[in-house]
Write a structure and sequence with these properties.
Structural class: alpha+beta
Distance between the termini: 10 Å
Radius of gyration: 12 Å
Number of helices: 2
Helix content: 25-40%
Shape: globular
Strand content: 35-45%
Order of helices and strands: EHEEEHE
Largest sheet: 5 strands, mixed
């Protein structure tokens, strides 16, 4: 049985507006920022309760840019 939501990963064309909205609406706290070379993306990690939300912004050709190109920005992955 699932008991916790570990993380939600969101792909966004631009991270900052998404991060700002999550902070304002959910009271999320920024706990990290880094670069993901394998996915050619920048990541901002926020904490909400015991869960994290990762917001990915493409920075070149890679999985995140491909996802946004095919489906548009939105839910990229979920971890339980």
């Amino acid at each position: 049985m699932l008991t916790d939501l570990d993380r939600i990963v969101v792909a966004a064309r631009y991270r900052q507006p998404v991060v700002h909205t999550l902070r304002r609406i959910l009271g999320a706290e920024v706990v990290g920022r880094d670069h993901l070379p394998l996915w050619s993306a920048e990541r901002t990690t926020l904490r909400v309760g015991i869960s994290e939300i990762e917001v990915l912004e493409p920075k070149g050709v890679g999985a995140v840019a491909n996802f946004i190109g095919r489906r548009g920005p939105g839910l990229f992955a979920v971890g339980f």
